[in-house]
Amino acid sequence: MEYGLTRLVLDSTAFVPITEDEYISIAKAKDGLFKVLSAEEQFDLVVENYLELEASFLESTVKNMVLENQDYEWGHAQRRLFNRRLANLLSAFRSYVDCAGRVAKEILTDNVDANVLVAGVYSKPSEGNFLSSFIWELRNTVQHHGFPIHSVVYPAGWRGEGDASRMVFGISVRMDINHFKEDKKFNKLILEKLEALGSEVDLKLLVRQYVEALGGGHAQLRRMVRPAVQSWDSTIMKMLELFKSAHPTESPAAVINAVIRNGKTFDNAISIFGDFIKYRKALEAKNGTLVNLGRRFVTGESLAK
Q1: What's the pTM?
Q2: Spatial separation of the C-alpha atoms in residues 258 and 266, rounded to whole Å
Q3: 3-class SS at 50?
Q4: For 12-37, how does the pLDDT look when each residue is reduced to its tens digit (9 = 90+)?
């Protein structure tokens, strides 16, 4: 029995011996890196669904500004669109929270800070955390009781005076709190806090704040797993370079395999390649931190530099 690196293709007999410890480290590195990659992909799902929701709000506002006086049917078509986008985002929230919490527990075992992160961001919300508990309840009511966006209003008004005045157009996506009272399973404490905000609540700010909270949790998760990820990256790239140095004429884009060779047979192959590491880093670069997202907004106004 011998451990080594090979391509497992008919036109190549290249083989580089490695130790059992190196084979085990390859298996551990690939498993850990794909777990981290799954969390990055789930976070990307959140970001992309959130972008689609916000973009829908903006597009609808622009159409209302330019076309004006849209009819009843158009208004409800917009509301249905927003509810569809929101349902997708709520589903993405749950998928991400489940995945990231699992990744944190499996990679950061016995890490006190990781336990705090999981309890605060990636576990079932407690009643002490209004925002995450509200999102949790909102997802449940969408699944079992109906859509949460009940009306859409397009407020507009003049700002400034004289030639400097501008008419500002906006959008308010509202929940009717009385609707949640009909859902007997809706958390009563969360309902009381919603009622304190008014009979109708604009959903946009609450969603933005929750996305920001998840973004902060994800940034913290990245920091915590970074030492392990860097070590695993190094393990994979070191093995790829080892094979390339020993067999420079082999295809530079080839996938290689860590195997156990028994005579002429190769068992327990672990494919290793560099592209998935580049892919993860690209997702990290694309989806940066979401600091102060709840305090940001987009305007169509021409802003002087």
Answers
A1: 0.93
A2: 9
A3: helix
A4: 889 999 999 999 999 999 999 999 99
